[in-house]
Design goal:
Strand order of the largest sheet: 3-2-1-4-5
Shape: globular
CATH superfamily of one domain: Vaccinia Virus protein VP39
Number of strands: 5
CATH architecture of one domain: 3-Layer(aba) Sandwich
Radius of gyration: 16 Å
Distance between the termini: 13 Å
Largest sheet: 5 strands, parallel
Helix content: 10-25%
Number of helices: 5
């Protein structure tokens, strides 16, 4: 879906890739994927894949060349970034016509009594999450990108 929205398909930048869970999906449709994460321990658990290069680098200082990425995707990681610095870095790395995409998750929703218990549990632990978690709770609505927005699509 993301590749369909990009003008070119040479390089995808998987930002905050962790151990590489988004990598397998983001590499489809691109010549290569550069997957970065600031934690070498995460990258040490990433599975090697054709056309994927892992680099230890923060989202705010990727080391990628100017105008080098056709897709910049942060899957379940943007809430940990230094947002103003990441926006500058993404703008520098993005090629004209490229896409910057943020993917996040939601809390599990279950009907009935189990769902009520899960909600209670979440309210108890909510105060113990690191500060960036607030962005997940508000579905990234406060993480503003300075580029034109494209139609948002939800996965199932």
């Amino acid at each position: 879906m993301l590749a369909e929205r990009c003008a070119a398909h040479d390089v995808a930048w998987d930002v905050g890739c962790g151990s590489g869970s988004c990598r397998s999906r983001s590499r489809r449709g691109f010549g290569r994927v550069i997957a970065t994460d600031p934690a070498q321990a995460q990258l040490d658990h990433a599975e090697a894949a054709p056309r994927v290069e892992y680099r230890c680098a923060p989202a705010e200082a990727s080391g990628l060349p100017d105008a080098s990425a056709d897709l910049t995707v942060a899957a379940q990681s943007a809430h940990w970034f230094d947002w103003p610095r990441f926006v500058v870095e993404a703008g520098r790395v993005a090629r004209p016509g490229s896409l910057v995409a943020l993917v996040t998750y939601r809390n599990a929703e279950v009907a009935g009594e189990p769902g009520a218990r899960l909600g209670d549990y979440y309210r108890v632990i909510q105060g113990h999450w690191p500060n960036g978690r607030v962005h997940v709770d508000n579905r990234y609505r406060d993480l503003v990108l300075p580029w034109p927005e494209v139609e948002r699509r939800r996965s199932r």
